User: Which sequence fits this backbone?
């Protein structure tokens, strides 16, 4: 007999088919220094699937690879890196080269020469410095100029790049649009715009990051959520419930009757109304409280049918008179 969906949902650990699929790759992951890409190429499995499998079910092995000791019970609570900043792997890889860039005894060498000393790519080291240690390139260039070691090379943002991304940067400063929307609006590459902001407009990056953190878990439509996007329904959702919302606004039909007429899910319609049309619910309940719709808890308002209110409205009016 096949297990029910609830029973399958309660089962912990990887599926048997996943265990068989990734057995050889997991063995190599635990016993060798090969990268995930090399292991997956050797074993013929997908890199993203295998990485997710290890992160979820063998996190202690993942932590061990990154020099973090943890048992299987406490591994789930350990983060390999913070939300932002340099990862432990990058810190290990570029740490000595970054310290060399700080050393005043090596000012005669430029960043490219220091990268070659440690068998690193010059562009990668420079990107690490600009992204995580922006003060080092500035200090190095100042000291090199004072000591007459400057090579007269262009440093910082190139004028043509500043001009290329100026419109997108201004749009991001004046609105809550996403990076991709700004990139598409001014026909600039998304990756280039993202890197340009990170290197040369860190104040804007921090401002947008704080705004996303403040909007985490937001429920008010129109406000930014944690992903930096406005909290709003998708066009497909609006179209699905458009007719049902109109009937809810203009008729005395119940949500059950409206759902049957329009062919939508009753629970879906109720959720849509609570999420995006809270003011209509309060209007139906005859709420007279002042203030924003999201400041008024629905549990404090009286529930009754609009059809019932219409039925007894003449009698109530006569009693009042």
Assistant:
């Amino acid at each position: 007999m096949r297990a029910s969906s609830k029973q399958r949902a309660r089962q912990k650990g990887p599926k048997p088919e996943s265990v068989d699929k990734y057995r050889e790759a997991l063995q190599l992951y635990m016993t060798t220094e090969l990268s995930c890409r090399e292991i997956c190429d050797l074993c013929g499995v997908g890199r993203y699937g295998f990485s997710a499998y290890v992160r979820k079910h063998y996190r202690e092995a993942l932590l061990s690879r990154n020099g973090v000791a943890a048992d299987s019970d406490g591994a789930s609570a350990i983060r390999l890196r913070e939300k932002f900043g340099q990862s432990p792997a990058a810190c290990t890889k570029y740490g000595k080269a970054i310290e060399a860039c700080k050393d005043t005894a090596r000012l005669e060498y430029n960043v490219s020469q220091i990268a070659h000393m440690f068998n690193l790519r010059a562009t990668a080291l420079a990107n690490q410095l600009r992204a995580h240690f922006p003060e080092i390139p500035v200090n190095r260039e100042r000291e090199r100029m004072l000591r007459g070691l400057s090579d007269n090379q262009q440093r910082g943002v190139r004028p043509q790049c500043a001009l290329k991304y100026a419109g997108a940067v201004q749009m991001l400063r004046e609105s809550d649009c996403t990076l991709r929307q700004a990139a598409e609006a001014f026909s600039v590459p998304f990756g280039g715009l993202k890197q340009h902001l990170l290197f040369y407009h860190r104040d804007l990056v921090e401002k947008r990051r704080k705004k996303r953190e403040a909007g985490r878990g937001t429920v008010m439509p129109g406000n930014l959520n944690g992903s930096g996007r406005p909290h709003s329904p998708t066009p497909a959702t609006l179209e699905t419930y458009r007719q049902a919302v109109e009937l809810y606004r203009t008729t005395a039909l119940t949500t059950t009757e409206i759902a049957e007429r329009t062919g939508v899910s009753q629970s879906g319609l109720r959720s849509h109304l609570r999420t995006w049309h809270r003011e209509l619910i309060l209007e139906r309940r005859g709420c007279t409280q002042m203030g924003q719709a999201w400041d008024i808890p629905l549990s404090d308002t009286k529930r009754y049918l609009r059809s019932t209110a219409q039925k007894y409205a003449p009698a109530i009016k006569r009693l009042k008179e």
Residues 16-31 form the longest helix (16 residues). Residues 11-77 form one domain. Residues 188 and 311 are 61 Å apart (CA to CA).
